[in-house]
Design goal:
- The complex is a heterodimer of chains A (about 290) and B (about 425).
- Chain A is built from three helices and ten strands; from the N terminus they run H-E-E-E-E-E-E-E-E-E-E-H-H.
- With about 290 residues, chain A is α+β, with helices and mostly antiparallel strands.
- Chain A has two domains: about 30 residues; about 180 residues, Jelly Rolls, CATH 2.60.120.380.
- In chain A, strands 1, 3, 5, 6, 7 and 9 form a six-stranded mixed β-sheet that branches.
- In chain A, a hairpin with a 5-residue loop joins strand 5 and strand 6.
- With about 425 residues, chain B is α/β, with parallel strands linked by helices.
- Chain B folds into two domains: about 190 residues, von Willebrand factor, type A domain (Rossmann fold), CATH 3.40.50.410; about 140 residues, Jelly Rolls, CATH 2.60.120.380.
- Chain B has a six-stranded mixed β-sheet, with helices on both faces. Chain B has a five-stranded mixed β-sheet with strand order 7-9-16-11-14, with no helix packed on it.
- The chains are: A alpha+beta (about 290), B alpha/beta (about 425).
- At the A-B interface, helix 1, strand 2, strand 9, helix 2 and helix 3 of A face helix 1, helix 8, strand 6, helix 9 and strand 8 of B.
């Protein structure tokens, strides 16, 4: 028993030491990437999408026809708005108008509709830039599994041209994108809470061996490996968490209602005794007694 | 200070690696070695047409050379870079010979800048444009370890050899599981070049750029080389979905890729234990010319064939992928003797992409699958947060209730006093 415990302790130490050894390396890597030339890159697909924070501006120089991907974390209760601007190529080099489009996908790669804004817009031949925007529905803290409701987690932004004169393909553009969110309140409006945000892991999959290894695999194999080192995720958790705080304006309403109810009760009580205690009430006891 | 810190952590890491190596099973240490550094090959067209002087007044060739020099200076150390040429040696008219003219100018590896620049300086616009052949050659040059690979193709003309068709070659290379991306840069504003180069880029998930200026050429190549260094090293695991659930491959959490032909259905299996939630997303890429309307359907089905949940998406117009996802959870076991063995969930993927008759049907469309198994969430006990309420109706009801209770209480008190007095 003691030996087991000892071995456990050593393993824990190992894990802790490994984690601390790995952490600075990861941080260094990010510093280098961010420090060199800011965020001047966009990913080219879901897997390589460039991570942004809310309020952070992502810029990219690219070619007309490229599909530009960014990914941003959104917490429950927030109403995110994405704004993008594309600096079009020289008007002299272009051959006609083009339609640009901004698409937003949730962490499950499901397309999310915009409630307002102009996610697709046609730029005329003489325009120098085009502005796109998309406001999503309020992100729910929980939803039925069959629903397409926006849930906390990673949100993918895709910017591309959807309709253009063939000759304009490949011309240089500059794009910039920002995501802001305002809190719509009611983080707990749905009562439930996701066990984990829709934040996809970026780890290569492993194909389970047929049958023989299966029970071992679920019990310890992948289980311990998974908890030992967290797989890289599409986005980092926002500073304020994924919106799992306990605060809700319902506390105010309910407490206010309670106080109001108590006041009304006192009022009702005094009403029943009121006329007697003030008028006859004071005079009666001596008359009775 | 940073160096010191690194040394310390390095030493600590080494120690623990040694200590843990003794304790942990060898499979765990197999994951440890860092991934091989990314590889890029620049493929440069040195055909006769590169003599044309239409890039900022200079010849295309000199623009390319200048760009290459700048790129070689800016190449990050962690990138292994190689250079291949096409049409550099044979000036003759014989198509047979001219279409075999592609050679490696500088082998893929750590760049020796002076050597590489010297090699580039010797190039003179000469021969034919065998793009397909050069792509195959470049893919061979990049073969070997498990690194991320990228080919940057710089050319001013369409393939003058015809066979093999460069676009088909690119699609084949992308399909053989090496995660190869081809980015193309066109130096001539010509429709055929544009079509061919964008087709190559589309087939491999790369980009196409029309180059007009020298500085644009060098900054774009630099950007592509840098992108190689920054791309996540985790590449999806290749799998092959089956035609029915029974014979489907069983997946763990993570990223996978597959190929699905037009009109095909592919099945995969997952094990989900009670109290766990399955999350699956899938994207099907349109890597060739496809008809403008398409959709995708991902269904979670029991082995018996009952549908559990589905995700679907439809679209139209120009796109790179169409994607959808689903969530499915197995409720937690209620009591001790409930069945706690993981359930098998089958995933069926289908899409309705179609293509014009002249478009090749094989290999299938690239599919990327991201699956994850997480803990179940708590279904809400009440629609409101913590059972709290909100709004004027709530306030009115509470106030009215208070008033009624107060009145009743007051009357009861009066009645009791009267009863007490009369006794």
């Amino acid at each position: 028993m003691r030996a087991l415990r000892k071995a456990g302790a050593v393993l824990a130490l190992c894990a802790a030491a490994l984690l601390t050894a790995v952490a600075p390396a990861v941080a260094d890597g990010q510093d280098g990437k961010d420090g060199k030339d800011g965020l001047t890159e966009a990913g080219t697909n879901f897997r390589t999408a460039t991570g942004l924070d809310q309020g952070e501006k992502g810029t990219a120089s690219a070619s007309t026809g490229d599909y530009l991907y960014w990914v941003v974390p959104v917490a429950a209760g927030q109403i995110p708005t994405v704004e993008a601007k594309v600096e079009l190529p020289d008007t002299a080099a272009r051959h006609g108008g083009a339609t640009w489009q901004l698409d937003v996908y949730d962490g499950l790669r499901r397309h999310q509709p915009c409630t307002s804004g102009s996610p697709a817009r046609r730029a005329d031949e003489q325009d120098t830039s085009v502005n796109l925007s998309c406001t999503l529905r309020q992100v729910r803290s929980w939803s039925q599994r069959w629903a397409n409701d926006p849930l906390p987690g990673a949100y993918y932004l895709r910017l591309t041209v959807v309709d253009l004169p063939e000759q304009d393909l490949g011309l240089p553009i500059d794009a910039e994108i920002t995501t802001t969110a305002h809190d719509g309140g009611g983080k707990h409006a749905d009562g439930g809470e996701l066990a984990e945000p829709l934040n996809p892991s970026l780890r290569a999959g492993t194909i389970a061996e047929p049958e023989s290894e299966a029970p071992d695999d679920t019990d310890s194999g992948t289980g311990s490996a998974d908890s030992g080192e967290e797989p890289p995720r599409a986005v980092a958790e926002p500073e304020d968490g994924w919106g799992s705080g306990w605060w809700s304006d319902r506390w105010v309403w309910t407490a206010g209602g309670g106080a109001l109810g108590a006041l009304a009760a006192v009022g009702g009580y005094t009403l029943t005794r009121g006329p007697r205690s003030s008028g006859t009430g004071s005079g009666r006891p001596p008359a009775d007694g | 200070m940073i160096i010191k810190k690194r040394l310390v952590t390095g030493a600590a890491g080494l120690l623990t690696a040694l200590a843990c190596g003794l304790i942990l099973p060898p499979t765990a240490t197999a994951d440890e070695p860092s991934r091989p550094s990314p590889k890029v090959e620049l493929v440069l067209d040195v055909s006769g047409s590169m003599r044309a002087r239409d890039v900022d007044g200079a010849s295309r060739m000199s623009a390319a050379k200048q760009a290459f020099n700048e790129v070689l200076d800016a190449t990050p150390d962690e990138v292994r870079l190689g250079i291949r040429t096409l049409g550099a040696t044979y000036p003759g008219k014989d198509r047979e010979v001219g279409c075999r003219d592609s050679k490696q100018l500088y082998p893929v590896g750590q760049v020796d800048r002076t050597e590489a620049k010297a090699a580039v300086a010797t190039l003179r616009p000469t021969g034919w444009t065998p793009i397909g052949l050069a792509l195959r050659g470049a893919s061979k040059d990049l073969a070997g370890d498990d690194a991320t690979r990228r080919i940057v193709l710089i050319t001013d003309g369409e393939d003058s050899c015809g066979q093999p068709d460069p676009c088909d070659v690119a699609r084949e290379l992308a399909a053989d599981g090496t995660h190869l991306v081809v980015d193309t840069l066109g130096l001539a504003p010509d429709r055929k070049v544009r079509e061919q180069l964008s087709c190559i880029a589309e087939a491999t998930g790369g980009t196409y750029t029309a180059v007009q200026h020298t500085d644009q050429l060098s900054s774009r190549i630099k950007q592509l080389v840098r992108r190689t260094a920054e791309t996540p090293v985790q590449t999806p695991t290749g799998i092959q979905g089956a035609a029915q659930c029974a014979s489907a491959p069983e997946l763990g959490s993570g990223l996978y890729n597959d190929r699905e032909r037009f009109g095909e259905h592919r099945w995969y299996r997952m094990k989900v234990a009670p109290g766990e939630e399955l999350r699956a997303s899938v994207s099907v890429a349109a890597d060739r010319a496809v008809d403008p309307d398409y959709d995708v359907l991902l269904r979670a089905v029991t082995p018996g064939g009952t549908e559990l949940v589905r995700g679907s998406e439809a679209g139209s117009g120009r796109t790179d992928v169409i994607s959808t996802g689903l969530r499915y959870s197995v409720p937690d076991a209620e009591d001790d003797d409930a069945d706690t063995t993981p359930r098998t969930v089958c995933l069926e993927l289908s899409q309705s992409f179609s293509a014009p008759a002249n478009v090749k049907r094989t290999p299938g469309l690239p599919v990327e699958l991201a699956v994850d198994v997480v803990d179940n969430d708590e279904p809400p006990a009440d629609v409101a947060a913590f059972g709290l309420g909100r709004g004027w109706v709530l306030l009115g009801v509470l106030a009215l209730t208070g008033l009624v209770v107060g009145l009743v209480w007051g009357w009861v008190a009066r009645w009791r006093i009267t009863v007490w007095r009369s006794n």
